[in-house]
Amino acid sequence: MFNMVFDPDEYSRFYNRRFCLQLFYKEKALEISYSPSKINRIEIVQKGEAIYFGPSLVRIHFGKRYEDHSVFNDGKTLDSTNVSVIWKNDQEATVTLRGEEQEPETVEIHFPLKRVMDK
């Protein structure tokens, strides 16, 4: 038979680990955008949460790569209005990041050309 004993120290450690995971590592999707021919994709996520009116970390996933940027939004949670993606073609896009305490920041994304191998 299984006997469960409540350990306040273990509960505290579990709660602290869970809090830290959500605060620093949890990803919240802000925008997912596909190239005109739908061969490439850009996903923009908020990584963790802003702390004490500090910046929010935004990660831009594209292909097998990513870039991290900070968005200063007065400590508020970000949403889709803080980001936009405009595709130039299937390999190039411009991502714009907006926050209440900063000028819009533009990030140029370039996907490598995919080559078809001759048989």
Total helical segments = 1
Shape: globular
Largest sheet: spatial strand order: 1-2-3-4
Structural class by sheet pairing and helices: mainly beta
Helix content: 10-25%
Query: What portion of the residues fall into strands of 2 or more residues?
Result: 35-45%
* DSSP strand tally: 7
Largest sheet: 4 strands, antiparallel
Radius of gyration: 20 Å
H/E element sequence: HEEEEEEE
Distance from first to last alpha carbon: 65 Å
In total, how many domains does the architecture comprise?
1
Mean pLDDT: 83
Poorly predicted ranges:
none
Helices, strands, pairings?
Elements: H1 8-24, E1 27-34, E2 41-47, E3 56-62, E4 65-71, E5 83-87, E6 92-99, E7 102-110
Antiparallel strand pairs: 1-2, 2-3, 3-4, 5-6, 6-7
Report on this structure.
By secondary structure, the chain is mostly beta strands. It has one domain. The chain is 14% helix and 43% strand. It is built from one helix and seven strands; from the N terminus they run H-E-E-E-E-E-E-E. It has one helix spanning 8-24, and strands spanning 27-34, 41-47, 56-62, 65-71, 83-87, 92-99, 102-110. It has a four-stranded antiparallel β-sheet. The longest helix is centred in the first third of the chain and has 17 residues, at 8-24. It is globular and about 55 Å long. The mean pLDDT is 83.
Produce a short descriptive summary.
This protein is 14% helix and 43% strand. By secondary structure, the chain is mainly beta.
